[in-house]
């Protein structure tokens, strides 16, 4: 991928981004010691925020960078929790089970990707939903789960509430940081160039030798693993496992909302979107159904009028780059002719206008 | 008296300027031949007149009315029909269905499926065949027929002889001669210079998006057109 | 056993009904409308509201609801899909998914969580049945739904192949650019297609309400059924959709025989098996499941 060295991404170290890097380190350090000073309730809410950031970043990795919009990501969320229950039931330490479970989710997603990645656009989106619905039904059949009654991660109860709360907080913070770092590393590395090429024009990328399917598979498995972590962490915070809650399409709705509002295809956007969603939930979550109507309406309005989301718009207007991975949302070019007639010359020229 | 007029037309494809300030006009019933090398902007110019490309500057006028912002389907209703380059038939539909689509705009006139089949007898046995299965000549005949079905005042023909055997080209032009005589205004893009000059009243040679030569087809010499075609008519190359 | 097969085939008629709008919209506009199921449920609620509030029987209510659904389809295309499709192939998925969330929760807000049914408003039709030879009882409603599905698919096929508007819609789906050049208003053709699709969705919603119960969140499973039937039925003709619907229903019937919770599992499994077989047969050149077979060179 020597071609990547001529793209503007390589000129990364702007003054702003260096300051941002230091700021990120400081923020993580502050978050790590924060539980000392925060009330139990706030610690729990912060844990929730970290999980939201993971969900948003992982859905964004898939849709914003891999061009794969899935409406079935709740399958990995549910499986993350389910495998954790199963492993803990088999005698594994519950905290270890959380991560062992996510690894299994990642492993399961690989063969799944062999079939699903051959689907296009909307077919992939709903196809994943079918997978989620089927998985939900199959998990219900497990005697341990007892159908929709559900079960609990009982073995977590051996720890006292305080220890449990702070441990889960740190695990969530560490998971979020690690997953974001992996994603950031991927996007800046040679895979990042491939990802951007695919996102701009899949056919053209394939024709110049980019490993399209391999790269998409990597993102698919990463997203499955990350969302599996999130599902397992959610189980740890709430203890109870009801399949209906975990395999609910609402999780994907949240992911879509966060990424659309924050800015699809921008690394910072997903994080911003998660924070926005977290605040909206904190303030308006109590209004129940209107809150959900609002989320749906916001998704519609952002997709129609602000498809780059908040961060994409800010970035475009002010040329601001905090954590440059060298990518800008390019939904408009994705029109990649549905009829499959190959590459239009006009399209190739517009794609050149990147950066 | 100009019937169709193009004024300072500029058309871009992204960053590429395909047509750079073209002005010309055609009188009612006249036939204009557009010649020029590949990439000279002929196809883009025809498509802009038909409304498939919106110009970034300039105007297209038909009988005094400004067409510039009018979408392509309404231009068909106003009497402009294009036989596009590469025919662009609806390959999943039959010959008859393609022809009937030409009637969508609903302009009054006497073109009908039967009349088109009379004009191109080779289509008669293929009436219900999908156009994807036709020979090049049959496809071209269908494309011309489809344009005629809208009873156009102005017919734009883009390289109708491309990819056809000389015999078929003769047949197509024999059919077109009837239209030319009937008083339809025609703008045609044609690579064969002799043919272009023999069927037209006026000729325009395009070079790099501009008009390099505009002349009367009867009085212009083949040599002059050839020079314009290769840009040799200029004293020295213009700065790009 | 033959009894179950007949019931399965008849249920397939309902699936074909709900699937045909989805695959019709996809074949014309290349958009999969994720609000498809929610709009069907919206129609069911509209009929329920007319029946319970104003005593308008559901079949008469259709005279009000179907034109409304057509208007919704037209507006959907003009104000949402057209704009969002300009942003690429992925954006309409997000737009319509957001719309589904809005519709579902508005229905919940308006009508609450209770499950409803149109069955009480159609009298004995909801339970009447005919006895066929071999002491097989088939529900009248199921037969009516099946026949309407067949009539609708046939009518749609005729409309597309025999009328000017139908041809214009097909031309637009094949090549919107060129259809404009022959005088077809592609925007109008798309809006009409969306309106027609929504009429079929409205009808499907009516039968959903008559043959079963529904609640505000019933749209998602209906969307999945529609999608599965359309994909199983495969490329192209509307009749494929009918076959897809029947296969889906038979798989569900079979699943229910195997395990008490096997009804839905059977359907999803059949979908995945068909998907897998088709993918392994088509090699790597697959461009899409709902697409028609690749067109021959122009």
Task: Describe this structure as you would to a colleague.
The complex is a heterotrimer of chains A (355), B (240) and C (298). With 355 residues, chain A is mainly α. Chain A has a single domain (2-352), classed as Orthogonal Bundle (ABC transporter involved in vitamin B12 uptake, BtuC). Chain A is 70% helix and 1% strand. Chain A has a two-stranded antiparallel ribbon. The longest helix of chain A is centred in the middle third of the chain and has 28 residues, at 161-188. The model of chain A is unreliable at 1-11 and 326-355 (pLDDT under 50). By secondary structure, chain B is an alpha/beta fold. Chain B has a single domain, classed as Rossmann fold. Helices cover 32% and strands 27% of the residues of chain B. In chain B, the strands form two sheets. Chain B has a six-stranded mixed β-sheet with strand order 6-7-8-3-9-10, sandwiched between helices. In chain B, strands 2-1-4-5 form a four-stranded antiparallel β-sheet, with helices on one face. In chain B, a hairpin with a 2-residue loop joins strand 1 and strand 2 (16-27). Chain B is globular. Mean pLDDT of chain B is 88; it is low at 236-240. Chain C starts with a helix and ends in a 16-residue tail after the last helix. Chain C is 73% helix and 4% strand. Mean pLDDT of chain C is 89; it is low at 292-298. Chain C has one domain (2-217). Chain C is mostly helical and 298 residues long. In chain C, strands 1-4 form a two-stranded antiparallel sheet.
Counting DSSP E segments of at least 2 residues, the number of strands of chain C comes to 4
Helix content of chain B: 25-40%
**Order of helix and strand elements from N to C terminus of chain C:** HHHHEEEHHHHEHHH
CATH topology of chain B: Rossmann fold
Structural class computed from helices and strand pairing of chain B: alpha/beta
Mean pLDDT of chain C: 89
**Low-confidence runs of chain C (pLDDT<50, min 5 residues)?**
292-298
- Cα-based radius of gyration of chain B, to the nearest Å: 17 Å
Question: Strand portion of chain B, in percent?
Answer: 25-35%
Largest sheet of chain C: 2 strands, antiparallel
Order of helices and strands of chain B: EEEHEEHEHHHEHEHEEH
Number of DSSP helical runs of chain B: 8
Question: For the largest beta sheet of chain C, what order do the strands appear in spatially?
Answer: 1-4
Low-confidence stretches of chain B: 236-240
Range of strand content of chain C:
under 5%
The order of strands across the largest sheet of chain B is 6-7-8-3-9-10
Q: Would you identify the CATH H-level superfamily of chain B? A: P-loop containing nucleotide triphosphate hydrolases
